[in-house]
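Dear support,

I submitted the protein below through the web form. The confirmation email said the job was done, but the results page showed an empty box. After a refresh the structure appeared. I'm attaching both so you can tell me whether what I see now is the final result or a partial one.
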Amino acid sequence: MQASPDTILDIQQIRQDFPVLDQQINGRPLVYFDNAATNQKPLSVINALTNYYEGYNANIHRGIHHLAEQATAAFEASRRSVQAFMNAEHWQEVIFTYGTTDGINLVAQTYGRKFLGEGDEIIISGMEHHSNIVPWQMLCEERGCVLRIIPVNDAGELMLDEYEKLLSEKTKLVSVVHVSNSLGTINPVKPIIDKAHEFGAVVLIDGAQASSHLDIDVQALDADFYVFSAHKIYGPTGMGVLYGKKALLDAMPPYRGGGEMIKEVTFEKTTYNDIPYKFEAGTPNIADVVAVKYALDYMAGLGKENIAAHEADLLQYATEQLSELDGLRIIGQAKEKIGVVSWVMDGIHHQDTGVILDQQGIAVRTGHHCTQPLMQRFGIAGTTRASFAVYNTREEVDRLIAGLRRVQKMML
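What the results page shows now:
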């Protein structure tokens, strides 16, 4: 077994922060390699949820009693923390949503319905998650827009020369994933944004997979919209973020109607609230919003660059070890990747692989990963995917390789 390189991170100590990892599955210590779907939560995040419900559970913004003021302060502290995390210019540009999917739908149903019409073109890529395909298809059906697709090459990279050919005066919106959930490919979103802006188009970046691995600076990117989910940055489920440039958000109509998103309501007319509250109707997911600050603090304490270096080592090591297995083919060989590796094995269905690995306590993801068009591009039904986080180790990769050898022995 090859030893891990020297690192300033104490991975064994870090693992103690994640109680879910300390268990056995089918009599074997858990190896959790499904981090691209959701990563595990440190005690600081879990305790933040408990502390909210035990100590200051109250509705926010409208109450004047002590608990309401405490809850409001914690809720808005998370907004400021997210602002710093993304380097947004204004705190009002941070909209709390229910996740990446909700953020994309918000933009499609507000900006899209107001500003896009018959014959306008929307560009997405061939490696998008279904959540960055279906909302735009729905908008196209309703508004008569046309959907254009950036093709993907054999290495699993976007073909930027073909992207530039798609751009025209008809292009009104470009929406692309920052990092592929299926392949781990890091897309060059800055030049994609810059080229779109040359034609006056706005750009949304799906940062669901990028947010825990890459530094996110929406001002440096000049992104018009950026979305991500808390549960993929060591935070809770059911909570996400939409960043939007202030001028764009001000121009967009509300997404949902109800309390909080209003200034004044009469039976004759309703006056809408200012951003961000215009897009946060009703009682929000308060506890999870409060807890996301602790997830961001946790990553900052470890150092995002240290997390990235550790995950890059795991990716390199896993890629080398997987490449030595006969009959295994890695899908996605992009030059720039995060810690995601997907593969197929000759004569073995990916679902069978996942079941046999689970019997050995190894959690991986199998299937099309909500990227069916991308699977069709590679002529496959699906893959087996291992995705890494800061608490994973080379020793766990070794267990994966041993598990795959067992899969081949049983199935071939």
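Response: this is the final, complete result; the empty box was a page-load delay. Residues 46-300 form a domain with the Aspartate Aminotransferase; domain 2 fold (CATH 3.40.640.10).
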